[in-house]
Protein backbone atom coordinates (compact mmCIF):
# COMPACT_ATOMS: atom_id res chain seq x y z
CA UNK A 1 0.00 0.00 0.00
CA UNK A 2 1.47 3.31 -1.11
CA UNK A 3 0.28 6.87 -0.52
CA UNK A 4 1.50 9.78 -2.63
CA UNK A 5 1.89 13.41 -1.61
CA UNK A 6 1.56 15.93 -4.43
CA UNK A 7 4.96 17.62 -4.39
CA UNK A 8 4.68 20.37 -6.99
CA UNK A 9 4.59 23.19 -4.41
CA UNK A 10 3.91 23.90 -0.73
CA UNK A 11 4.19 21.95 2.52
CA UNK A 12 4.48 18.43 1.11
CA UNK A 13 7.53 17.29 3.11
CA UNK A 14 5.60 17.43 6.40
CA UNK A 15 2.92 15.09 5.06
CA UNK A 16 5.53 12.61 3.85
CA UNK A 17 7.09 12.72 7.31
CA UNK A 18 3.78 12.02 9.11
CA UNK A 19 3.01 9.12 6.75
CA UNK A 20 6.44 7.58 7.31
CA UNK A 21 6.12 8.08 11.07
CA UNK A 22 2.92 5.97 11.06
CA UNK A 23 4.61 3.30 8.95
CA UNK A 24 3.13 4.12 5.53
CA UNK A 25 5.11 3.83 2.29
CA UNK A 26 4.98 7.49 1.17
CA UNK A 27 6.17 8.99 -2.13
CA UNK A 28 6.50 12.52 -3.44
CA UNK A 29 4.42 12.80 -6.61
CA UNK A 30 5.47 15.01 -9.52
CA UNK A 31 4.89 12.86 -12.58
CA UNK A 32 1.58 11.71 -14.05
CA UNK A 33 3.01 8.17 -14.45
CA UNK A 34 3.33 7.87 -10.67
CA UNK A 35 -0.35 8.39 -9.95
CA UNK A 36 -1.94 5.11 -11.17
CA UNK A 37 0.28 3.11 -8.77
CA UNK A 38 -0.98 4.94 -5.70
CA UNK A 39 -3.58 3.76 -3.19
CA UNK A 40 -4.16 7.26 -1.87
CA UNK A 41 -3.04 10.84 -2.42
CA UNK A 42 -2.52 13.90 -0.22
CA UNK A 43 -2.73 17.45 -1.58
CA UNK A 44 -0.74 19.71 0.78
CA UNK A 45 -1.09 23.32 1.82
CA UNK A 46 0.71 26.01 -0.11
CA UNK A 47 -0.55 28.51 -2.66
CA UNK A 48 -3.53 27.18 -4.57
CA UNK A 49 -3.02 29.57 -7.51
CA UNK A 50 0.51 28.22 -8.05
CA UNK A 51 -0.51 24.64 -7.38
CA UNK A 52 -3.32 24.80 -9.93
CA UNK A 53 -0.91 26.02 -12.62
CA UNK A 54 1.62 23.28 -11.90
CA UNK A 55 -1.00 20.51 -11.75
CA UNK A 56 -1.91 21.36 -15.33
CA UNK A 57 1.58 22.10 -16.59
CA UNK A 58 2.79 18.73 -15.30
CA UNK A 59 -0.24 16.84 -16.67
CA UNK A 60 -1.47 15.68 -13.26
CA UNK A 61 -5.11 16.68 -13.43
CA UNK A 62 -6.60 13.69 -15.28
CA UNK A 63 -4.56 10.97 -13.52
CA UNK A 64 -5.64 12.34 -10.12
CA UNK A 65 -9.30 12.50 -11.18
CA UNK A 66 -9.01 8.88 -12.39
CA UNK A 67 -7.42 7.77 -9.11
CA UNK A 68 -10.21 9.37 -7.10
CA UNK A 69 -12.91 7.90 -9.32
CA UNK A 70 -11.50 4.42 -8.65
CA UNK A 71 -12.22 5.07 -4.94
CA UNK A 72 -8.70 5.75 -3.63
CA UNK A 73 -8.72 8.24 -0.75
CA UNK A 74 -7.70 11.81 -1.51
CA UNK A 75 -6.96 14.17 1.37
CA UNK A 76 -6.45 17.93 0.91
CA UNK A 77 -5.21 20.36 3.56
CA UNK A 78 -5.68 24.13 3.22
CA UNK A 79 -4.66 24.96 -0.39
CA UNK A 80 -5.29 21.25 -1.07
CA UNK A 81 -8.88 21.76 0.06
CA UNK A 82 -9.25 24.67 -2.38
CA UNK A 83 -7.93 22.44 -5.18
CA UNK A 84 -10.60 19.81 -4.34
CA UNK A 85 -13.58 22.18 -4.12
CA UNK A 86 -16.27 22.14 -6.77
CA UNK A 87 -16.85 25.88 -6.26
CA UNK A 88 -14.45 28.64 -5.22
CA UNK A 89 -16.17 31.76 -3.91
CA UNK A 90 -13.86 34.28 -5.60
CA UNK A 91 -14.76 32.86 -9.01
CA UNK A 92 -11.57 30.87 -9.64
CA UNK A 93 -12.10 27.87 -11.88
CA UNK A 94 -12.22 24.59 -9.95
CA UNK A 95 -9.16 22.36 -10.37
CA UNK A 96 -10.08 18.85 -9.18
CA UNK A 97 -13.79 19.27 -8.36
CA UNK A 98 -14.11 16.15 -6.22
CA UNK A 99 -15.83 17.72 -3.21
CA UNK A 100 -19.28 19.24 -3.46
CA UNK A 101 -18.49 22.33 -1.39
CA UNK A 102 -17.94 26.04 -1.91
CA UNK A 103 -14.76 27.38 -0.32
CA UNK A 104 -13.79 30.93 0.47
CA UNK A 105 -10.04 31.52 0.23
CA UNK A 106 -8.20 33.49 2.94
CA UNK A 107 -11.45 33.56 4.89
CA UNK A 108 -9.98 34.98 8.08
CA UNK A 109 -8.68 38.17 6.54
CA UNK A 110 -5.56 40.12 7.30
CA UNK A 111 -6.05 40.66 11.06
CA UNK A 112 -6.22 36.95 11.73
CA UNK A 113 -3.81 35.61 9.16
CA UNK A 114 -2.85 32.60 11.23
CA UNK A 115 -4.19 31.10 14.44
CA UNK A 116 -4.44 27.84 16.32
CA UNK A 117 -7.43 26.34 18.10
CA UNK A 118 -8.76 23.07 19.51
CA UNK A 119 -11.39 21.37 17.39
CA UNK A 120 -13.79 18.56 18.19
CA UNK A 121 -13.62 15.91 15.46
CA UNK A 122 -15.90 13.11 16.72
CA UNK A 123 -14.94 10.76 13.85
CA UNK A 124 -11.36 10.74 15.16
CA UNK A 125 -12.26 10.13 18.82
CA UNK A 126 -12.76 12.17 21.98
CA UNK A 127 -9.38 13.87 22.02
CA UNK A 128 -9.67 17.25 20.24
CA UNK A 129 -7.57 18.08 17.19
CA UNK A 130 -5.15 20.98 17.44
CA UNK A 131 -5.96 23.03 14.33
CA UNK A 132 -3.22 25.19 12.80
CA UNK A 133 -4.79 27.70 10.39
CA UNK A 134 -2.53 29.62 7.99
CA UNK A 135 -4.25 32.01 5.58
CA UNK A 136 -6.89 29.34 5.63
CA UNK A 137 -10.03 28.85 3.61
CA UNK A 138 -13.44 27.97 5.10
CA UNK A 139 -16.27 25.99 3.62
CA UNK A 140 -19.29 28.17 2.93
CA UNK A 141 -21.58 25.59 1.38
CA UNK A 142 -21.77 21.85 1.95
CA UNK A 143 -23.45 19.59 -0.62
CA UNK A 144 -26.01 16.93 0.40
CA UNK A 145 -23.51 14.04 0.15
CA UNK A 146 -20.86 15.77 2.25
CA UNK A 147 -20.29 14.97 5.93
CA UNK A 148 -19.09 17.78 8.18
CA UNK A 149 -16.18 16.52 10.31
CA UNK A 150 -15.38 19.72 12.22
CA UNK A 151 -16.59 23.26 12.82
CA UNK A 152 -15.15 26.30 14.54
CA UNK A 153 -16.96 27.59 17.64
CA UNK A 154 -18.79 30.08 15.41
CA UNK A 155 -20.18 27.21 13.32
CA UNK A 156 -18.02 27.64 10.25
CA UNK A 157 -17.12 24.34 8.60
CA UNK A 158 -13.39 23.51 8.53
CA UNK A 159 -13.24 19.74 7.82
CA UNK A 160 -15.38 17.57 5.55
CA UNK A 161 -15.58 14.16 3.98
CA UNK A 162 -17.41 13.07 0.85
CA UNK A 163 -16.98 9.31 0.34
CA UNK A 164 -13.24 8.84 -0.35
CA UNK A 165 -12.37 12.56 -0.34
CA UNK A 166 -11.38 14.38 2.88
CA UNK A 167 -10.40 18.02 3.30
CA UNK A 168 -9.37 20.30 6.16
CA UNK A 169 -8.93 24.08 6.27
CA UNK A 170 -6.12 23.57 8.77
CA UNK A 171 -2.81 21.68 8.86
CA UNK A 172 -2.84 18.52 10.99
CA UNK A 173 0.65 17.69 9.69
CA UNK A 174 2.07 20.79 11.44
CA UNK A 175 0.58 19.93 14.82
CA UNK A 176 1.92 16.44 15.49
CA UNK A 177 -1.58 15.16 14.66
CA UNK A 178 -1.56 11.74 12.98
CA UNK A 179 -5.21 10.66 13.10
CA UNK A 180 -6.22 12.15 9.73
CA UNK A 181 -3.28 10.38 8.09
CA UNK A 182 -4.17 7.14 9.89
CA UNK A 183 -7.74 7.44 8.59
CA UNK A 184 -6.44 8.01 5.05
CA UNK A 185 -4.07 5.04 5.46
CA UNK A 186 -6.95 2.82 6.61
CA UNK A 187 -9.02 3.89 3.61
CA UNK A 188 -6.05 3.34 1.29
CA UNK A 189 -5.43 -0.15 2.68
CA UNK A 190 -9.09 -0.98 2.14
CA UNK A 191 -8.83 0.37 -1.41
CA UNK A 192 -5.65 -1.62 -2.09
CA UNK A 193 -7.12 -4.85 -0.75
CA UNK A 194 -10.90 -4.66 -0.70
CA UNK A 195 -11.27 -8.22 0.59
CA UNK A 196 -13.00 -11.30 -0.71
CA UNK A 197 -16.13 -10.73 -2.72
CA UNK A 198 -16.66 -7.17 -1.56
CA UNK A 199 -15.13 -5.40 -4.54
CA UNK A 200 -14.06 -1.78 -4.66
CA UNK A 201 -17.19 -0.46 -3.09
CA UNK A 202 -17.82 3.24 -2.82
CA UNK A 203 -17.77 4.73 0.66
CA UNK A 204 -21.19 5.14 2.26
CA UNK A 205 -22.79 8.48 1.76
CA UNK A 206 -24.86 10.32 4.33
CA UNK A 207 -28.00 9.35 2.38
CA UNK A 208 -27.17 5.67 2.00
CA UNK A 209 -26.29 5.43 5.70
CA UNK A 210 -29.59 7.01 6.69
CA UNK A 211 -31.45 4.71 4.30
CA UNK A 212 -29.57 1.67 5.65
N1 LIG B 1 -4.11 31.07 1.20
C1 LIG B 1 -3.66 29.94 0.44
C2 LIG B 1 -4.46 29.81 -0.85
O1 LIG B 1 -5.41 30.50 -1.05
C3 LIG B 1 -3.78 28.67 1.24
C4 LIG B 1 -2.86 28.73 2.45
C5 LIG B 1 -2.34 27.41 2.93
O2 LIG B 1 -2.39 26.40 2.22
N2 LIG B 1 -1.76 27.40 4.09
O3 LIG B 1 -4.11 29.03 -1.70
Radius of gyration: 16 Å
- The overall number of domains is 1
User: What is the helix tally?
Assistant: 6
The rough form would be described as globular
Order of helices and strands: EHEEHHEHEEEEEEEEHH
Low-confidence stretches: none
The hetero molecules present are: glutamine
Instruction: Count all strands and give the number.
Output: 12
CATH superfamily: Class I glutamine amidotransferase (GATase) domain
Give the CATH class.
Answer: Alpha Beta
Helix content: 25-40%
| CATH topology-level fold name | Rossmann fold
The assigned CATH architecture is 3-Layer(aba) Sandwich
Output mean pLDDT: 93
The major beta sheet can be summarized as:
7 strands, mixed
Strand order in the sheet with the most strands: 2-1-3-4-12-11-10
